[in-house]
User: Fold these one by one.
Assistant:
Number 1:
Amino acid sequence: MAAELSRDLETMPKVRRKSRFFTSHFWAETLWAFVRAVLVLGICYIIVYPLLIKLSSSMMTEKDMYDMLVKWIPRKLNYESIVQNYRLLYGFMDYPKALFNSLVLATTVALLQVVSSSLIGYGLARFDFFGKNLLFALVILTLLIPPQMIMVPLFLNFRFFDFFGIMPKSVNLLGTYWPFILTSITGMGLRNGFFIYIMRQVFRGLPKSLEEAALVDGAGQFRTFLTIMVPGAASAMLVVFLFAFVWQYNDYQFTRMYLSNTAPLLPFSLERLTRTFDVEQYSKEYISILNNTGMIMFITPLLLLYGFLQRYFIESIERTGIVG
Amino acid sequence: MRIRFWPRFTLRRKRAVWGYLFVSPFILGFIAFFLGPIVQSIIFAFNELTIKAAGFELTYVGWENFRYALRVDPDFVRVFTETTIQILVDLPAIILFSFFAANLLNQKFRGRWMARVVFFLPVILTAGIVYRFESGDILTDVLGYVPDETEVFSVSRSMIGLLSVLRMPAWFVQYILTAVERVPDIIKASAIPIVVFLSALQGIPSSLYECAAIEGATGWETFWKITFPLVSPLFLTNIIYIIVDSFTRPGNTLVELINDSAWGRGIYGVSVAMTWMYFGVIAVILVLVFLLLARRVVYMEE
């Protein structure tokens, strides 16, 4: 059978196809592919450039900075020369402790925000009740108000926290993680409205039939939510986690307001470096090298997290998860 | 006869109760950490606030805080106009760039995944602290993150030449030039708008494109008759996002000034008054954008 077929193919008259090189379509495609490659590479370069600069300068010595021939790669490059700056800052920044605290805070806040925004998003997406549209408008409103507007009142509320006048004596919640926990669990954290919006869109996009089947089979509303809806929205929840984590990790202003800038957290220890350098009287060039090293040490955990989660991030965009 | 404690709910009522339960964290949080503070901030704007060990004290001063911000504070008016103009300049640039980039990333080519990973990288690199170090860093100057002055000038000059040959109005030339200088910032700010546009592009049913191809539409026509109208609702979403993002974007000098007034100089009332004026202008911009765009947006029927 196979032999027959191949013989048939051989004896078939050869059709002379017009070479594809002569069609204008081919040339237009090739030209556009070239232009596109240049554009994409150029934009990628602009984005990655600051990172590359920091990385390369974090491996330099002070001498390299004066060396006119050194632009990207330092003169000496071995394990010792690569590690030297990092080792110095490891002590200056109290790195393990600061990193640990920052990670714990960001993870707590992100987890709580994922929980609160999925609950709220589900409520807004799947139930009909009086004032639902108003509530959704209020979610958007919390985004539109500049956070500076409620900054001072929030500060005072947590400084003299009396649980809305219920507690007889006010307590000072500043300096604890409570302000973060309370605002995150109630969907009022940094850009929480954005996450509620995302989760609402995702839940709206999930098929209704699954949920109804579970309800008919006798699962309660909450159980349906946990066992049917949450797995369906898992990748979107990972994306929300990534966003919430990143924004808390990077946040300077509210964290300083709630905890004061002497707290052992990464942004503050990065900031304190400036004072250390002043005391040590380093040269301008050396300070620049060390600053870049510090920033690499600050960014690396985020890059790792992004590396792990980028698959879900990009997949959820492809499945039109983020906006419905 | 048994007396029931709970009234008998219809299924609808029951589901409504569940809805309220799911949303209740937000209602609590909204009242406690949003509505309350907003009301307080209105009060603070018209009072002088002093913080003491046992609580805070308010002294009514009328419009004094606003007068102070506008007439006494040496920087506010300048920074305020600059920031507002900055948003107006950035908004179209970010929107256009992100729409373009999303279309680019929506095409099929080798390394598309990698390109997407890099394009969305700025989402995680938004730390204000990093920005502050960068702006004061000599290395970025030495290594030439911004090309040499001579280079910028020659590029700018040839562009001015080109644009004036084309008889473009002066404001347009100026706009292009500032936009070119701010390319890295605009690319960084575009990350999430690109995400939004891209997911909208992916959501357009392919049957529409097939239909258009069979009817013999060119790529150009397909773009303007199908892609653009179906993505148009997200222009509004993105405009809102970009404005919201600008509140927390590092390098927003007005926000820095507001923070400094509160935490540096301790004039809380003035800082709140400044924020209200800022929000007022932003609200006006948003309303104008809505009035301008809301009618032209196409919503796909479901």
Number 2:
Amino acid sequence: MNLAVVAEGVTRRFGRRWALRGVDLAVPRGAVVALLGANGTGKTTLLRVVSTLLRPTAGRVQVLGHALPAGEDEIRARAAFMTAGGHAYEELTGVENLRFAARMSGKTASDDDLRGALAAVDLGGAADVPVRAWSTGMRQRLELARLRLRPLELVLLDEPFVSLDEDGVGLVHEAVRGWREAGAAVVIASHRVDDATRHADEVVRLVGGRVAAGTA
Amino acid sequence: MNRLTMLGWLAIALIAVGSVLGLVVLPADALQGEVQRLLYVHVPVAWVMMLAFFVVFLMSILYLVQRRLKWDLLAVSAAELGVVAAVLTLILGTLWGRPTWGIWWAWDPRITTTALLVPIYTGYLVVRSMAEDPDRRARWAAVIGLIAFVQVPIVYLSVFWWRSLHQPPSSPQSMWSAYGLVMLLGFVAYTLAFAYLWLRRYRLAATELELELSGPEEG
Amino acid sequence: MSALARRAAAILWKDILSETRTRQGFTAMLSFAALVLFMFSFAIGVDNDLLGRLAGGLLWVAIVFTGTLSLGRTFQNEELAGGTRLLRLYPGDVRAIYLGKLAGNLVVLAALEVVLFPAAAILYGVDFAAQAGPLLLVAALGTFGFSVIGTFFSALTVHLRARELLLPLLLFPALVPVVLASVGATEAFLAGDPLGRATGWLRLLASYDVILFVVCVWIFPVVLEE
């Protein structure tokens, strides 16, 4: 089986606190995995490990064919991690934020491309407004537009539905479907069960840093 | 008695012998008088300070390469001793400087650089104390421990150019015979004392870390 | 342009654009610098000869104090925008982040000095213009060294509590060679360099700049790890 992510016995402790205790996870390409669990159960930590940001204390992780920590660069080029909270540079406009993201990813995107990407998430009208004046939901949409700037083989979404309205949630679902059809693996970490599992091929539930029995 | 304790007693014995020789047995220096006896402590302690910071540097590199917390604990143990030795060196140096040069603080390159080492390595210790995650703490500390050691020679050189007053480093030539031997004894004694305290502190640090990690879980 | 330079340039462009939108930081910094210059005069008195002789030192201390405030903000806009971890998620060498931020600090400090040098010339009654060429070189080397170390420690302290205190604690001892050499060279040039000491100071400064730059660039990825 062709797996985008294989994690075995991943453990991460922050001093006295154990965020992950021996988590096993397998995400096939072209599949959507819903990562469920209450706040503080290790969902974000697991995504940070898989996205190459955080080294585990113990355990093996293989992402897109690379055994971490090797191949981090290659993974970063082909995978994306949408962190929770809808972050953006306050003083820059929507277009400028996207242009920065494109340049940092090594892409040259024309002004039309960038405006198109914004229009696709219903932000066409706010393209030239500094983000400082945007709502949280709009920022979340900007994150979505950022992910769609480049082709991806692995998409990690951390709480993608928070503070989005009906339409916004619809946009996330649409994007997830698109990625899956293109053969990418998608991991959705969320405590919103209905939305997270709508397209899920598999459901993994974390409890206290472990995979709950019967969900993997 | 285990080997470490024996090392400690050996260091104490040698320091005692050296002190008796330096303070009582040897005659006062012809030029500097009684105050010269301070150098039997000042110079070896300054040596211990440099040794300690060099150890911090080595342990920092080892940590960055291997990422084992053991190296971090060895580094911080040496850093604490280094700061103590630096402060002691400064106090002894100014005590010696007042009668010899006529002023407490002469802006001499070595004293000034030593004085700068105190905030540098205090910064090292403070940054270390601020991180909760042991890995993070070790990483930040190792970076500072490494870069501090790169700075120090150039800090010294720049202060040297700026102002120079200090008598040349004590060498066997100017300190031959009885003086030289007592000084050599001091170097050996204080180096052993450093080794003893360093390893003791390391054991304590290892126990502390164990407790920290095994204590009641948070979050 | 290599990928590294392109990404560093993207960060520089983004930061300058943000800064020009608000300008609050820069305006406050300039006012602070002016106040520092005034404070020195208040402390020393209106003896123009004395102020003139001390001008090099006072100027560099003003640059270091003001610059430290500005350097401390280097990575704070990233924290507001989700942290440097988001920058690390982009493919490519993370040293681009250091280089981009370093370039940004150079621009800000250069802008500060463009105002501070003439202000000091007027307030302390010294003629920087007569030695403009050599002084420009001193300013360039001094500012580069300051930025190299400041950007690095700014990244290191950004996640710490009490970083406003810790940044100067780490930074100032590291700046001793930069300050001594910059002040030494500035004063030597202002006096017409009778002893030929300026070249030595410049060499020391340049060596320190290069060594610290290499070490900081090399070790920077470790600083950004989580």
